Amino acid sequence: MVLRDLHGGDEAPSTIFVLKLMKGGEAIPYELVVSETRLRIVHKFNQTEYAELCISDEDIIHARLAGVSLQLTAVKSRYDSLMPYGLNQWEYHLYSKEIKLMFTLLQGDADIRAPWKFVGNESIEIIMNPNDEVCSFVIESYKTVWKKKTYEDYIQACERVDTHYKQWLQDMPVVPDKYEPSRELAAYITWSCVVHPEGQLKDYAMYMSKNWMFNIWSWDNCFNAMMLSANRPELALAQLDLFIRHQDESGIYADFINDKFLSFNCCKPPIHAWAFKNMRNQNSWFDDKAIVARMYDSLTRATNYWLEHRRADASCLPVYNHGNDSGWDNASIFHHGIPVEAPDLAAHLIRQMDILSEMAVELQLEDEATAWKVEADKLYGLLLERLVQDSRFVARYAPEDRIIEHQDSLILMMPIIIGYRLPQNIVETLVNTLVDRFEAAFGLCTESHASPLYRENGYWLGPIWAPVTYLFIDALMDNGYNEFATRLACKFMDLTLVGGMAENFDPVSGEGLVDPAFTWTSSVFLMLAGQFSSPWREIG
After folding, report:
1. What CATH number corresponds to the domain at position 126?
2. Residue 84: which domain range?
3. How far apart are CA 1 and CA 31, in angstroms?
4. Which of 60, 134, 136, 63 has its CA nearest to residue 102?
5. 226 within 8 A of 240, measured Cβ to Cβ
6. Could you tell me the mean pLDDT of each successive run of 10 residues in the chain, 540 residues long?
7. Which residue among 175, 275, 341, 517 sits deepest, i.e. has the most Cβ atoms within 10 Å of its Cβ?
8. Omega before 339 within 30 of 0, i.e. cis
């Protein structure tokens, strides 16, 4: 059992303490009793003896012990050091995390074992012990200076957090009883992954996970923002604003952001205008002219980045320089090398420019509205010319200007998002191919189940992913394929009852794969739960 800290993102070590339940100086067996707001570590053979922890405030853990001790053993680097600070207080300097922790004993006794060795403690053990069977303490995280405060009673602190979580849960869509376990899990995952402003994070950010991928990525954020839009619009807009505030002069959005780092090595597909339009459809709060103007300006620069910096000239299509740029990291179209002209990228850009044209009209920028339409038409013409064969979309290996032979990735079906532009025969081919070669028991495989490259646990070579599921359902609904869209939504809802809110899923068994608790999976489930409220949801 460990205590972790997420500062520095997913490339930084996160485990900072190993925890042991103690009695009489010896470790004792325990069981865990957990809720959304509290963790109780219970003596296996005496349920009245336990340690209970609650994150009572931003950067504060409040703990209470009954009849047992809690040992915290630091997982430290060379310079990490613990020093006495005040009465019943010790300050721990974590050089590796660039933070400090203050331990404040409120009731009970503490046994500190931290022998000094030249430039840091050789080891650090903090043992909190009950006095008259009770112990209470807090752990606070901060960057520079600890600020003195008055601590409320443990029960009061926990009740306040309970109230906060209940309000969050109440804001989530109502679902049939069958899906209530998925609703509660999705609500908890999204709630628990929101981190406060600090460092590079200029506003509250919903991380993708607190297991391994504790950053905010620039297309994951779109699905989380859409989910939040109806009832928490300020937090929803913050998910987009986090990237706008760090937008490079070239127009590119960072690939990901955490409190310490920005990464521009890759980027993500241009779905942001579509996401913002979806947010506006849910809540008129986003129709404020200042918000629309700010989004239009940012989306203009982001779109021009792709047009100006991701193609050799206007006679070819923009390219992905890595699979990670697409979000489909190891999809089969990237197995032949990079860069790649991919039809999904062109389709995303065409739709983005069509939406920008609409926004320009709204902002009374008529010349710009016309210019976006012209540019979208040009790109659409190039898409049909370069990446359509026999009514199907293909990808090109750009350095040799040749069509990539392998054509079994679901990413090649993504142009259905611009079905409003495509000839009907191409739309029908896309839909038929989705049914015949990609639909499985729980949804759409990301690599055709008929492909020799298909892998049940192949990341983007087979498993079902929430974001693309939502993109396809949305596109199918827009193109009048309501029954197919509803069937996919039903399958995904049922999938969460089998595999939880995992990063991705086995298409046949429904098993959750890779990270077991992902926010964009949770957000997609919650959006589908809110949008598909007819009796089909009871089908199981």
Report:
1. 2.70.98
2. 2-163
3. 11
4. 60
5. no
6. 93 93 95 96 96 95 97 94 95 94 97 92 96 93 94 94 96 91 98 97 97 94 97 98 98 97 96 98 98 98 98 94 97 97 98 98 98 98 97 96 95 98 97 98 97 96 98 98 97 97 98 97 96 54
7. 341
8. yes
